[in-house]
Design a protein that fits this description.
Largest sheet of chain A: 4 strands, antiparallel
Structural class of chain A: alpha+beta
Number of strands of chain A: 8
CATH superfamily of one domain in chain A: Jelly Rolls
Strand order of the largest sheet of chain A: 1-8-3-6
Shape of chain A: globular
Radius of gyration of chain A: 17 Å
Largest interface: A-B, 31 and 31 residues
Oligomer: homodimer
Distance between the termini of chain A: 42 Å
CATH class of one domain in chain A: Mainly Beta
Order of helices and strands of chain A: HHEEEEEEHEEHHHHHH
DNA sequence: CACAATCATTGTCATAAGACAAAGTTTTAA
DNA sequence: TTAAAACTTTGTCTTATGACAATGATTGTG
């Protein structure tokens, strides 16, 4: 846990220009938590009130579509931040689930505390703004990839740009991230 | 043009809590421009250095995929803001084209002036942050829609949520926004 | 206005991907 | 440890969509 806190501090240090004492104070506003695989952190139908930092493990953000299939929006591996973004922003009922895809060690801060911190430490807001920018760039890239590429090319794209996903994440979840069924992914992998 | 400037001011007023005199000063940093249909504002291969407000008409952001097909990322109708976001953020060479999809009246501000304005009028930054949040929410929604829905349902979704696009925008461009060929879109429309 | 260019529609055919099912494998939990 | 559950792979069949082409409509331009 000591190590975990210093990980969080490092993350804040690298994404803001806050001084060490402020970084320490801010890090302490986050609550450390160990969560088992498949723990549900945010649920469809509820309003998202938390922001997460992943120190170890992996969280997964997904929706369930009309046909009952999971559609993965995002994986957050260690040293990244995540939340059920759309609901976190709009404060409307979420369509998303956020779960631990592996046993994970995470830090949680309430949305209220998160935004209040911006008042005390304005520089901290830049972390959120960078997160939003990065999240947008990633999301827009996926739009282009899904619209412009066939399954096999989407697979190759992930192999090249997010190879961790293929080694760590279950095929089923990767398929739901690539916008295909698990049987299709399996056949495409066999073709490579 | 008088009217156009007041439109820009109105937009700033509604998306920040700036006072009137600051709003006027900021609006004057934007340059008014009339552009013909198909005018290229930002080009693939270049770094995006501008931010746009659409007073009248419509801008379209798109990429060209491997096969040479256009893939539309976003339409910006009147009273909305747009740029080649990914390049604007990363300041790397853009993959995107930004063009006038109709004869349009727009306001342009350079990226430098835009960010400098944040220093003089910190509250103005909230407009950019809201833009980022909104852009993310929209983009993420599209990811879910494309991954979870078939063509016919994507079409119905746009009919319900962005009906303007179907009345104003060419079928070809709408198809490239929906992730299908124009012939497929045409057949789906016939099926409705 | 008239010609050219672009776009929209529709048809045929080919193909990528989904649905479903069966068998083998791995993970989970009692 | 062992049984149950979940996941992965592979096969067959079906279907949605793409590729390509022809025709007709619309738009832009000299």
């Amino acid at each position: 846990m000591e190590k975990a806190y210093s990980q969080l501090q490092k993350f804040i240090r690298e994404n803001t220009s806050l001084c060490e004492s402020d970084i320490e104070k801010i890090a302490l506003l986050f609550k450390f938590k160990k969560v088992k695989r498949n723990t549900m952190l945010e649920k469809e139908g509820q309003v998202c009130k938390h922001f997460y930092f992943v120190a170890k493990g992996c969280l997964r953000l997904y929706e369930i579509d009309k046909k009952g299939n999971e559609v993965t929006g995002k994986f957050a591996l260690e040293n990244s931040i995540i939340t059920a973004v759309t609901s976190f922003i709009t404060q409307k009922k979420s369509m998303d689930f956020l779960t631990a895809h592996e046993h994970s060690e995470i830090f949680v801060i309430s949305r209220d505390d998160f935004f209040k911190t911006f008042e005390t430490f304005p520089e901290f807001a830049s972390l959120y703004h960078k997160f939003m920018e990065w999240a947008f760039v990633h999301s827009q890239m996926r739009v282009y990839i899904f619209l412009g590429m066939e399954g096999i090319d989407r697979l190759k794209w992930v192999m090249e740009h997010e190879p961790d996903l293929l080694t760590r994440i279950s095929s089923k979840a990767v398929a739901s991230y690539l916008g295909m069924t698990n049987s299709t992914l399996s056949k495409l992998k066999a073709k490579l």
